[in-house]
Target: Signal recognition particle receptor subunit beta
Amino acid sequence: MADLPELLAQPEVQIAILVVAATILLLLVLRIATGRKRGTAVLLVGPCNAGKTTLFYRLKDGTTALGTVASMQENDGYAQVRNDKGRVAGQLRILDLPGHPRLRSKMEQYLKDASAVVLVIDSADITPNKTEAAEDLFEVLTHPAIARRRVPVLLACNKADLETQAHSVDFCRRTIEKQLDAMRKTRQALGGDAGRALSALGKADKPLSLASLRSPISSASISAEKGEVGEVVSFLAKLL
Ligand SMILES: Nc1nc2c(ncn2[C@@H]2O[C@H](COP(=O)(O)OP(=O)(O)OP(=O)(O)O)[C@@H](O)[C@H]2O)c(=O)[nH]1
Ligand SMILES: [Mg+2]
Model:
């Protein structure tokens, strides 16, 4: 049998090594390129007090620590994502953004590189917060990078544990859909949205339908405080 130096001197073996090395390199480049295209972080956005920080800690540590203080800055961390068999399937970077309107300008910068967006809303308090929630969704969906990459969005209707006060997912979704439709009309009439991908909201002469937009928009009923976040975890697992 030929020893290693002899084997390596054979042109067929050298070609085989080159082909394997080139394939590995190509796979690495493809992985980096597609990773970039898909974005690097899942953003938690939505009105003040909706439960974003509570959800952030629930996903990151499985606890509700520090969820009660209004956030002044973003929380950045990694969540272990389990598949439906309960095994850790991978980890994702999660960014919890403050809901206060004065601090929301940062959202624009993070949207450039988002792999998914979770819009957290308080389903017991949707009516007074519908304008803010729809505004956030407008900024998300019409962001050119989100529209181009068809970034998935989850409408997470939180505080489902407040059974008598919490509205159904359907009600929350329809409320936001209507508000977004009205907002689109006003903003189109006013102009000034140059650079935003307004076409991502569908045809201007038709009522807006969340079900038929460029980015897939799913909805879930959750309770971040009680740890009932299975639908968020399933949404995240699909990103891996
Ligand atoms: N009942 C109930 N309360 C919740 C739930 N999730 C969060 N809360 C409460 O809602 C309040 C606001 O929660 P946060 O997580 O701080 O809300 P936020 O969206 O991060 O708010 P900002 O940082 O101000 O944007 C806190 O008092 C939480 O304890 C939930 O699932 N059920
Ligand atoms: Mg917060």
Notes: Residues 54 and 67 are 4 Å apart (CA to CA).
